[in-house]
Structure formats: structure tokens, C-alpha cells
Amino acid sequence: MKNYFKHYFFISILLFLSCCTTQLPSIEKQHITFAQDKWKDVDEIKLQKGRTLFVSRCSSCHSLPLPSSQKETEWEKILDHMKHRAKIDKMEIDLILKYIFTIKAFEVMENK
Ligand code: HEC
């Protein structure tokens, strides 16, 4: 009986992970190329940091909003509005925005 619960627990965790990692894209080569073209000073580490900050600072009070859920200009306003709650500084806002804009650009392209 004990083992049964262990398996159940493990499978639930797997389901949880697979559901939520597919929703928010991770950084791939195409994203890095795109971002470097657009901003020059961006690299894989910075994009990854933007993603990590977004996930860790923006999901404690509500579910994590998807990059595709808002327009770029809206995102700028939202981050300005959320910055005190999320305890993020200007540089961190910048990293989060670059991650969001990069992911958004690909989502728009894919939907065409
Ligand atoms: C301390 C809690 C808290 C944290 C942390 C937080 N939020 Fe929010 N967020 C809220 C609350 C409360 C609302 C709804 C009321 C409002 O809009 O002020 C909200 C609303 C929103 C909305 C909907 C607003 C709209 O205009 O539709 C978005 C999008 C959002 N947050 C994004 C973020 C992002 C991105 C981060 C990370 C940088 C973040 N939030 C971090 C509390 C938080």
C-alpha cells in the first residue's frame, strides 16, 4: 500500500512538471539568435535569467501570465505596476521584458 502512494505521488509530480514546462517556452538557439539581433548585449545567460526571474517573481500571488497574453506596450506598463510587489529592479525588469518579447515574437510568427 505504501508503494502505491509513492507511485501516485511521483506520477502527480511528473504530470505537474510536464504541464507547466510546456506552457512557458524555454530558451532555444532560435531565441538567442533573434534576441542578439535585436538588442546586441543579450546572451543565453541573460535570457535564461529573465525567464527564471519571471517564473520565480511573478507567480507567487497569481498564476504566471503567459507572454502571449499581453501586447508589448502592455507588458511594459504591467512590469512597472508589479515591480514593487515582485521586488525587482530596473535591470531585472529589463531582463524579464527581453525574455517575454523574444518568446512573444516567436508565438506571433508561429500563429501566422
Ligand atoms: C505581491 C503579489 C504580486 C506579485 C509578486 C506579482 N503580482 Fe501581478 N498582480 C497582483 C495583483 C494583486 C493583481 C491584480 C490587481 C492589480 O492589477 O493591481 C495582479 C495583476 C497582474 C496582471 C493582470 C493585470 C491586468 O492589467 O490585466 C498581470 C499581467 C500581472 N499581475 C503580472 C505580473 C508580473 C509579470 C509579475 C512579476 C514581475 C507580477 N505580476 C508579480 C499581485 C502580484
List its salient traits.
112 residues; mainly alpha; binds heme C; 5 helices
Explain this structure to me?
With 112 residues, this protein is mostly helical. The protein has one domain. Helices cover 75% and strands 0% of the residues. The chain is built from 5 helices and no strands. The longest helix is centred in the N-terminal third of the chain and has 22 residues, at 2-23. The chain is globular. The termini are far apart. The model has no long low-confidence stretch (mean pLDDT 88). It binds heme C. The site of heme C has 12 residues, from helix 4.
Number of separate structural domains: 1
Radius of gyration: 16 Å
Cα-to-Cα separation, first versus last residue: 51 Å
> How much of the sequence is in beta strands?
under 5%
Q: Which molecules are bound in this entry? A: heme C
Shape: globular
Helix content: over 70%
Give the total of beta strands: 0
> What string gives the helices and strands in order?
HHHHH
Count of alpha/pi helices: 5
Poorly predicted regions: none
Structural class: mainly alpha
Can you lay out the helices and strands and say which pair or pack?
Elements (H helix, E strand, L loop, with lengths): L1 H22 L5 H11 L4 H14 L14 H15 L3 H22 L1
This protein binds heme C (HEC).
Heme C (HEC) binds next to helix 4.
Condensed summary:
This protein has helices at residues 2-23, 29-39, 44-57, 72-86, 90-111. With 112 residues, it is mostly helical.
